[in-house]
């Protein structure tokens, strides 16, 4: 049995997607944390705070996009579970 025919292949694909989602969330969260730290370090610098707020707004948009991708992925998984019989139960 080659790797692509393994019963574990779908799980590996989901694990890979989960790793990508983890990365896609951590990157903007790290950027948001840095922007907040800058705002805290310079509470009276209105220009810096305005720029940091713009950064935060962009990163929230990125996170929203990832959440939408995740929702679509979950919808696909739910549909697949409803439409396809489980291989394990056939054995």
Please tell me what the overall shape is. elongated
**Low-pLDDT windows of residues:** none
Helix content: over 70%
**Helical segment tally?**
3
Count of distinct strands? 0
Spatial extent as radius of gyration: 20 Å
Distance between the termini: 17 Å
Structure class: mainly alpha
**SSE sequence, one letter per element:** HHH
Task: Give the arrangement of secondary structure elements.
Blueprint lengths: L8 H33 L4 H38 L3 H4 L1
Helix pairs in contact: 1-2
Descriptive account of the structure:
With 91 residues, the chain is mostly helical. It is built from three helices and no strands. Helix 1 (9-41) runs antiparallel to helix 2 (46-83). It starts with 8 loop residues before the first helix and ends with a helix.
Q: Which descriptors would you attach to this protein?
A:
about 90 residues; mainly alpha; 3 helices; elongated
Write a short abstract of this structure.
The chain is mostly helical and 91 residues long.
